[in-house]
Write a structure and sequence with these properties.
Layout: E1 4-8, E2 10-12, E3 29-31, H1 34-42, E4 46-50, H2 57-63, E5 66-69, H3 94-110, E6 114-117, H4 119-127, E7 131-133, E8 157-161, H5 163-169, E9 172-175, E10 182-185, E11 190-195, E12 200-204, E13 210-213, H6 224-232
Parallel strand pairs: 1-4, 1-5, 5-6, 6-13
Antiparallel strand pairs: 2-3, 7-10, 8-9, 8-11, 11-12, 12-13
């Protein structure tokens, strides 16, 4: 049987209702971008989507082989890392963040591998005792704008790696970039990649498989971290 990967979902609120030719109110949705699911399936895993809410995190992680924390249309509220809002903050999904943190703790306790993508990396750092830069400064001399204005299926800036990130990606990689929050303190995780302007681009646990990357490799057809996640279920 292929490894079962628990995937936490984003939440789209119901749209404002207006009369239309086909009279039907809009609905709220829980969902995950297709690229994540295709990446898991292409690497030999089976994705299982879980919506935000109150769940028994340990029981869930006992039934699966790995955890994927996708990015999405949300920010991590600063209250989760004991800071105040400074600068811009976008939509927050506090029930999702709470569940993500619970699942991370359960996965680590049970020795299940974890992969966090973009916002998923940020919540991974927070769950492991770290904190975030709540709103990155904009582009300037020697500093990228990390919300690229170009197609995110194309690369935007350079990243230098070390440790497990080098094993997976090589010493240098060009990545896309679609975020305005970033890891500040990685907690008990280790920084294993940075952009040339110093922004943290990947973190990893010193033991076991727990990896976070700030970019979206699946958007560029790069499934290497997903393959590493699936491979880690066999160890």
């Amino acid at each position: 049987m292929s490894p079962l990967v628990l995937v936490t979902s984003d939440h789209t609120p119901p749209p404002d209702w207006k009369p239309r030719s086909r009279v039907r109110r809009g609905h709220a949705w829980y969902g995950v971008s297709v690229e994540y699911l295709e990446a898991i399936s292409s690497c030999g895993g089976t994705p299982l989507i879980i919506p935000p809410g109150e769940h028994n995190a340990k029981a869930l992680m006992e039934t699966v082989d790995a955890l994927l924390l996708p990015g999405g249309d949300f920010d991590v509220h600063p209250k989760f890392y004991e800071k105040k809002i400074t600068g811009r903050i976008d939509r927050t999904l506090e029930n999702k963040t709470t569940l993500d943190i619970q699942l991370i703790h359960a996965a680590r306790e049970l020795g299940k591998p974890i992969l966090g993508i973009c916002g998923g990396m940020q919540v991974l750092a927070v769950a492991m005792g770290g904190s975030l830069i709540g709103d990155l400064p904009g582009p300037a001399a020697g500093r990228y704008g990390h919300e690229q204005p170009t197609d995110p299926t194309t690369a935007w800036h350079d990243v230098t790696t070390q440790g497990i990130a080098t094993t997976i990606f090589g010493h240098h990689i060009r990545t896309n970039s679609t975020h305005h929050q970033a890891v500040d303190d990685p907690g008990t995780m280790q920084v294993v990649a940075r952009a040339s302007d110093g922004v943290v681009e990947a973190i990893a646990a010193p033991t076991g498989f727990a990896l976070g990357v700030q970019w979206h490799p699946e958007m560029m057809g790069d499934y290497r971290p997903y393959q590493a996640l699936i491979d880690a279920t066999a160890t």
